[in-house]
Specification:
Elements lengths: L3 H9 L3 E5 L5 H13 L2 E6 L2 H11 L7 E3 L7 H11 L7 H7 L3 H10 L5 E4 L5 H12 L9 E9 L5 E7 L9 H17 L6 E4 L10 H16 L5 E5 L1 H5 L1 H7 L11 E3 L3 H14 L3 E8 L5 E3 L6 H15 L3
Parallel strand pairs: 1-2, 1-4, 2-3, 4-11, 6-9, 7-8, 7-9
Antiparallel strand pairs: 5-6, 5-10
Bound molecules: coenzyme A.
Coenzyme A (COA) binds next to helix 7 and helix 12.
Length: 330
């Protein structure tokens, strides 16, 4: 069952810190004031202290007790520049370039996590996904066993029986046109994430074709990726390729894919590319009344997550909790 209560219980025992890169954004300050008041996760705001307090006062949020770090006045900046140059030495980054890059909140905040000054990072309220995620790809890197960073969304809405309806969708945000093997990795990480949120995954590889009804490279890609994922994860119901109606409607599934265990009951959806994924989760969110949590980045060495620029303070607060819970190894 999806519930923030369990994640908060984990955080209460672990005293984690989270970098929030958009330190002067009122939504970040509202979420920070809530985190500070509840005292289970410590925010580290990036930006100029005077400006952050000014915005907090103007917006009426109490952020007393928050750590604030200004990249222009960071006492360990020389150490950070040295480590950054070491990490990017294959790219031939000069000291001057490193100092300039580290003035940017995203690179600076990511280095705070890399160097152990913080446990995790949440950014993107005022930056694009690419600007938020690129430093993580370059500096935090993939964890052992992972070859790519992918992402998923967890979608939640109240169900008819009172229990929440919880779905997982990947990859809606990072890999623009993943190949077969990348889709297998995205699916396996999405399955892992789905389980963490209480989903018993039934995984549909989505397409414009169901079980060979349509032809094309994109159809083959989804069918082959489904087969490979199934071979590697025999205990999880996985099927594809299939259309979305066959994935979720038992009636359509009966007609289009009667042999499938997943069709009609899918709750974990793997999209063929970022166009389909990004449009798909936003339709569920805006027209299906699901709350969307994510993108949750998968496969990184430390949790770094990205907000939508249209996020609300409540979404910032929720994503901060999810991000920090991953730092506790949930
Ligand atoms: C994620 C993204 C920003 C990476 O693009 P990029 O920075 O141009 O990528 P590059 O090819 O220059 O790679 C930069 C680094 O990241 C690494 N990288 C890129 N994609 C990666 C992935 N999926 N997994 C792991 N590492 C990745 C590269 O290996 C490279 O590392 P290096 O610099 O150490 O050699 C890009 O794929 C993208 O824009 N995705 C879509 C984001 C988006 O707009 N989403 C929609 C809104 S939610």
């Amino acid at each position: 069952m999806f519930g923030f209560g369990q994640l908060i219980d984990v955080l209460k025992k672990s005293h984690k810190t989270i970098v929030l890169t958009d330190g002067t954004d009122a939504r970040i300050l509202e979420a920070s004031s809530r985190l500070l008041a509840s005292n289970f996760l410590k925010p580290i705001l990036i930006g100029k202290e005077d400006r952050i307090y000014e915005v907090a006062e103007e917006s009426g949020f109490n952020i007393r007790g928050a750590s604030i770090i200004d990249p222009d006045n960071f006492e360990d900046i020389d150490k950070m520049v040295e480590q950054f140059m070491e990490l990017r030495k294959s790219k031939g980054v000069t000291e001057e370039e490193a100092r300039k890059i580290l003035k940017g909140n995203n690179y600076f905040g990511t280095m705070l996590v890399k160097m152990g000054y913080a446990d995790c990072l949440l950014g993107g309220a005022s930056y694009t996904t690419a600007d938020t995620v690129r430093p993580a790809l370059q500096l935090i890197k993939t964890k052992p066993g992972s070859h790519i960073v992918g992402s998923c969304f967890i979608l939640v809405r109240p169900g008819a029986t009172g229990a929440n309806e919880v779905l997982a969708m990947g990859d809606c945000s990072i890999n623009i046109n993943p190949n077969e093997d990348e889709l297998v990795e995205i699916a396996e990480e999405t399955i892992r994430c789905a389980k963490l949120f209480g989903i018993d995954p039934k995984v549909a590889f989505l397409s414009y074709s169901t079980d060979g009804s349509g032809k094309g490279e994109a159809v083959d890609k989804m069918r082959n990726a489904a087969r490979k994922t199934k071979e590697r994860n025999p205990d999880v119901p996985i099927d594809g390729e299939m259309q979305f109606d066959a994935a979720v409607s038992p009636h359509v599934a009966q007609k289009k894919f009667p042999t499938s265990q997943v069709a009609g009951n899918a709750n974990t959806f793997i999209f063929p590319d970022i166009n389909a994924g990004n449009i798909g989760y936003k339709i569920a969110q805006r027209m299906g009344n699901f709350d969307a949590y994510g993108p949750i980045l998968l496969g990184l060495n430390s949790p770094i997550n990205d907000l939508s620029r249209g996020c609300t303070a409540t979404e910032v607060y929720s994503m901060a909790i999810i991000t920090a819970a991953f730092a506790c190894g949930i």
